[in-house]
Amino acid sequence: MPRLLSTALSLRRDPRLLKIPPYVSAFCIAIGVVWLLLLPLDDYSRRTYVSENALLPGQVHTYFGGSEQSIFRGFRHEVDLLASKNNYEVNDKLESILTGFGVKVGRQNYTYHSAGEIYSGENVYGILQAPRGDATEAIVLVAAWKSIDEQLNRNGVALVLTLARYFKRWSLWSKDIILLLPPDSTTGTQAWVDAYHDAHDSKHIAPLPLKSGALQGALAIDYPFEHRYHELHIIYDGTNGQLPNLDLINSIVNIAGGQMGIETTVQQMAGHTDSYQDRLQTMLRGMLYQGLGYPTGPHSSFIPYHVDAITLQPTGEGWHDEMAMGRVVEGSFRSLNNLLEHLHQSFFFYLLMQKNRFVSIGTYLPSAMLLAANFTIMAIFLWVKSGQPMAKKGTADKPKDGRNLLSPLALVATCHSISAIPLFIFNHLGIKTLPLAFLLFSVSSTVLPAAFSFLIASLHKPTSQFFQLTKSFSLLILGVSLATLSTLNFSLAFLVGLLASPLTFIQPTKNLVTKAFLAILLILTSPPVIISSAAWTSGVAMSEVLKAASLGWNVWGMYTPIIVWCVWWPAWLIGMTNTLSPISKI
Amino acid sequence: MTLQSKVGVFAGAALLRLVLSTAFPSLPDLLTGRVEISTPVTSFKRLQEGLFLYNHNVWPYDGGVFHQAPLLLPLFSLLPDVKTWPIFTSLLYILVDLLSAYALLVIADSGEAGQSKHFTSPRRAKRSSGLLVAAAFLFNPYTIAASIGRSTSVFTNCAILFAIAKALSGSPFNAMVAISFASYLSMYPLLLLPPLVLLAYDRQSEKRRIDSAIQFSIRAILIAAACISLLLAMSFALTGNSWDFLARTYGIQLTLSDLTPTVGLWWYFFIEIFDSFRAFFLAVFWLHLVIYVGGLSIRLRTQPLAVLTILLGIFAVFKPYPSISDTSLFLAMLALFRHLYPIMRYTYVASATMLYATFLGPAFYHLWIYAGSGNANFFYAITLVWSLGQSLFVSDLTFAVLRDEWEVERPEMVGKEIRQI
């Protein structure tokens, strides 16, 4: 053992050893990407299973049907009549309907300001008190007046009203059922959930007049059309990429598929053939939504409060009707009603490949961690390298005992502190000025590194050690942030890590061709260029993207802008500055 | 170093803290609630609870929440109510931080780190100025967080630094009084007494010199004992003529009966341990903490300041309720040994480890407590990493001190690779 150690120690001085880390970094990136591509294979993903025994999905007979259909038609008629009315008139009517069944009703006003626009409305909700409970727990049924696609959620609202009337007559509920009817699918639920947990900003959002117990789960119905449908689309992404417990999805898949014979699908993958391509596509779509961190439906607002929630959205042309949908909701509520404790048995971190196939965090996390590790490896390598005298040059002018830390630290600190500017601008400007601001920012973001490198060159004759150290610190921060992020939002960490991976390999060079190539590569992978090209490929106007990002920040506390502007962009800025800088002759 | 730059650094640090706590009024309360900053024996929130009971003429330890020294209560009841006038509490903490920085300035300017009575480092020429050391302490994010989080360990840190500064400037009496205050507040600084007595003995002023080491130590220990007894007697009178407060303050630290998570290594271990082994392992953990004092004081007899620094590092890792405030004290002392940096080997890895732990700790705590998607193991794993980073610093500093000493004995080995066999 001592001999082995001494060999290892003598190897430490070997100059060949210093050549290895860049390859290790590249290897980490390659493995990280390949790892992700392997996940859809049968050997790496697993079939889903219901872990929580109390749920017993699909074990009860559901009775919703028959004469309830006439009542449903009646309510749909009422909803149609209200189509052109304003929020308050709608709520007056809904309140009178709900009070008619003997449900206690509360209303809540809210106003959000974002990008110079005002989002306001009034939520109406009813609490159906459990005959066998003590109001310590509740399940929520949500139908927003406007669906996710901004259409009138006619069937959804009518179905919730019918179900409320139907549930009221059963004596088996042990948890209160809350019927929430927000005016839209975006801001309304957020205001309500915040106020339910007393976490609202009381200047803009009213408190709730009526409350029940701890929320155990929530189900939202997004059903705007009339015709019969083919399958149920389960939307499960929460704000900031948080996910509901997998057991909730499993139960619904089980109830809809096993009991009612309705196909279920995730991530808009209608006609999933369970092939590798389809699985990969499902997973990548899931990662994209998770990475954006943007809420995908009315259920999203519940998840940050540790309330497991999903939205059910019927899609396609088929033969299932609204009664079947009602029975799915009834079955799911009966399952949730059985719960003895909060859903906790199954996974909170997973990637779905198909409605019944998933990979858990232990299997997929290494790919993001490898991407983050590549930055840290390079950072440590550069630190070691910066401490070693230049090999070929004379020993006389070798830098005296190592490193001058102050100026590299100052540059890194400057770049990170100016990142507060885009964060502030894009979250506080009005919608009219946002596109212009983005354009100006993109231009200045491209010019800034050139200015920086000019300044550095004229101020204090930078050595290659200076660049090694700035890059080392910047990559260290990037690596640490991404490693932390990958435990909170895997997909975002993976995407940013992948897009920032060229930063590992850039360095100041004298060769003009290489320099131009590196500069172009970096410009292509700069945050503004990536954002605008992503918007362009998905066919969304840039102003819409900026508006949505601002809304996400101001309403849902979405932290994606922090990651982009305060983690990724400063790292890119330092990388670009290093590329453009003239290397001095020592 | 001019007076201007001194004033600049101190005013800047004070202003930064003041701006942070007034511009973000929710920040102090947020930081006070963090387990990384507030431990059961230093938490400001718990102090408020004790203060409320005290002001309502109830025995302050009745709530079972407050575990801090009783004399803090009259001090804080003098301040205006913290809910209506938070500024006065902030000012007190800022003042204490500035005093600590001043003590550090004195310590650094004494040059003791590089040249003590019995040992002169060949590298001593390269030392950091006192101002730089003070600035490194004042602008360290951990110090700022502990100060804004109003952890009462700030007072202990200040007392420890003053004890060292006074010992260096040749006033053993003041040093003993200061260390008594620190020990009274947090108990563990009592373990610093042996190296501190040695330090004070080495740096006695010529006028009132006591040549016999034994005589000097006995006098010093008697002074400390008298001072601590006086403080305890005052506490006795303050808490309704009863000694019960001892069990509720120092007893909690000795028996670890409050298992609130901290950044240390004890809480998880004692949650998991079976009750029949609890007493044994408590003894082992405490013995482990105490055992370094004698060994280090003897081995590094010639450099008592290094002993103090290494001990502070060890305490920040292994004491029952550590927080980042203890780490900030260790890092501040570490800055004194600028001349040893070239022979320290793992500074970058250790800093990177601590940086990782600083980021991952709050994230994992969030996953455990708020998101509910993680569990206690997540946070405990990261406190292990945190402790690893600190112990790397401690062992690296010890290595550098020993190597420095060794190179004086063996000048032919300067700059050569060495390895342990």
TrEMBL record, chain A:
Which residue spans traverse the membrane?
A: 20-39, 361-384, 404-426, 438-460, 472-500, 512-536, 556-575
Keywords from the named record: Membrane, Transmembrane, Transmembrane helix
Q: Which domain of life is it from?
A: Eukaryota
InterPro entries named in the record:
Gaa1 (IPR007246)
Q: Which GO terms describe its biological process?
A: attachment of GPI anchor to protein
Q: Does the keyword Transmembrane helix apply?
A: yes
Query: Is Transmembrane helix one of the keywords UniProt gives this record?
Result: yes
Q: Which Gene3D superfamilies match?
A: Zn peptidases
Pfam families with a match to the protein in the record: Gaa1 (PF04114)
Quote the cellular component terms of the Gene Ontology held in the record: GPI-anchor transamidase complex
Q: Which PANTHER family match?
A: GLYCOSYLPHOSPHATIDYLINOSITOL ANCHOR ATTACHMENT 1 PROTEIN
Q: What is this protein called?
A: GPI transamidase component GAA1
TrEMBL record, chain B:
GO BP annotations, alphabetical order: attachment of GPI anchor to protein; GPI anchor biosynthetic process
Secretion signal, residue range per the UniProt entry: 1-21
- One GO CC term on file: GPI-anchor transamidase complex
Q: Where in the cell is it found?
A: Endoplasmic reticulum membrane
Write down the InterPro entries for this protein, in alphabetical order: PIG-U
On whether Endoplasmic reticulum is a keyword of this UniProt record, the answer is yes
Membrane topology classification: Multi-pass membrane protein
Q: Which UniProt keywords apply?
A: Endoplasmic reticulum, GPI-anchor biosynthesis, Membrane, Signal, Transmembrane, Transmembrane helix
Metabolic or biological pathway, per its Swiss-Prot or TrEMBL entry: Glycolipid biosynthesis; glycosylphosphatidylinositol-anchor biosynthesis
Highest taxon above the source species: Eukaryota
**What's a Pfam family in this record?**
PIG-U
Q: Does the keyword Endoplasmic reticulum apply?
A: yes
Residue ranges annotated as transmembrane are 85-108, 129-148, 175-199, 220-238, 265-293, 300-318, 348-371, 377-402
Describe the family membership recorded for this protein in Swiss-Prot or TrEMBL: Belongs to the PIGU family.
Q: Any idea what this protein is called?
A: Uncharacterized protein
